[in-house]
């Protein structure tokens, strides 16, 4: 993995896996430093990606919900190779290739109530990657990470999110953005054929 990709991986991991869990964990354990907690999670994630077994109990720096997810990945013979491959994938390079070549019409939708991605941080990074490509971006106000409608506050942890809106209704705003974009793209492609 090249350094730029590794930095992007760490940034995305920090935003989507680490940040939602770190602040409540550090607040409940004031002797801990948020930077140390983030580093412990990223080091454990990198070790798992490198095929190593990790003792997640040894330093007490990993929040319980993140620890549970990492233990699941390490122990499951199907999940571990999947996550290692997913984490090693050079996403930024592939996205740039697609954006530059304009090979794929692109709509990126991140709900503002998404707990796995930050519409501001991740959305901003993706907007930077796709600059000048014609990609479209949308950030529906009440959509969660699966485009479900979330009218309440953003859940503090992934476990809370699953309990709150595991099989809820899809967000009308998100669905409207997607269908409008598809209709516009389809109309535009029909015009290009003529």
Provide a descriptive summary of the structure in words.
It comes from Ditylenchus destructor. InterPro entries: AB_hydrolase_fold. This is Alpha/beta hydrolase. There is one protein chain. The chain is mainly alpha-helical. Helices cover 59% and strands 3% of the residues. The protein contains 8 helices and 2 strands; from the N terminus they run H-H-H-H-H-E-H-E-H-H. Strands 1-2 form a two-stranded parallel sheet. Helix 1 crosses helix 2 (34-49) and helix 2 packs parallel to helix 3. The radius of gyration is 19 Å and the shape is globular. The termini are far apart.
Over all CA atoms, what is the radius of gyration? 19 Å
Coarse structural class:
mainly alpha
Largest sheet: 2 strands, parallel
Query: Which residues form runs of ≥5 with pLDDT under 50?
Result: 4-10, 12-18
Protein name: Alpha/beta hydrolase
InterPro entries: AB_hydrolase_fold
Short description:
This protein has 194 residues and is mainly α. It has helices at residues 3-28, 34-49, 64-75, 79-88, 91-101, 121-129, 158-165, 172-193; strands at residues 107-109, 136-138. The chain folds into 2 domains: 3-88, no CATH class; 102-193, no CATH class.
